[in-house]
């Protein structure tokens, strides 16, 4: 339980994605922001998803978003037994306040209480010595079970 990454797959970290994982380790959510059109990109890419510019700069993102969609897993995926203690796992597509849509786990909310449009805020967990991962939970004002 204390080792959150035990028996779970770790992300393959590349030069392109390392800033994201390192920032999460440092409790910050960063995304690539286009210097030409100001679009926030997720996930990390060599060029802007809107205008194609390669002038992308890692930028602090607002730590809030809105649930766009979600799914609930009641079984361990790909036999990674490290997930067993976490079930059921709620995976969401989240529209960040800065505009990017990212996928992440939402915790602190029973599956039956999940709602599209729910407001969520980021928090972070360590997954290795060099990486953290952003996860989300309902904001206090979201009307979720956290009240
Ligand atoms: Zn752009």
Task: Walk me through this protein's architecture.
The chain has 147 residues and is mainly beta. The chain has one domain (18-139): Beta Barrel (OB fold (Dihydrolipoamide Acetyltransferase, E2P)), CATH 2.40.50. It is 5% helix and 35% strand. The protein has 1 helix and 8 strands, in the order H-E-E-E-E-E-E-E-E. The strands form 2 sheets. It has a 5-stranded antiparallel sheet with strand order 6-5-4-7-8. The protein has a 3-stranded antiparallel sheet with strand order 2-1-3. The longest helix has 8 residues, at 18-25. The protein is globular and about 45 Å long. Mean pLDDT is 91; it is low at 1-5. Zinc ion binds at residues 34, 36-37, 39, 48, 50-51, 53.
Bound molecules: zinc ion
In which order are the strands of the major sheet placed? 6-5-4-7-8
Identify the CATH architecture: Beta Barrel
Instruction: Report the major sheet.
Output: 5 strands, antiparallel
What is the count of DSSP helices, taking H or I runs of 4+ residues? 1
Total number of domains: 1
The H/E string reads: HEEEEEEEE
Q: What is the percent of helical residues?
A: under 10%
Which fold name is given in CATH as the topology? OB fold (Dihydrolipoamide Acetyltransferase, E2P)
**From the structure provided, what is the oligomeric state, counting identical versus distinct chains?**
single chain
Can you tell me the CATH class?
Mainly Beta
**Content of β-strand:** 25-35%
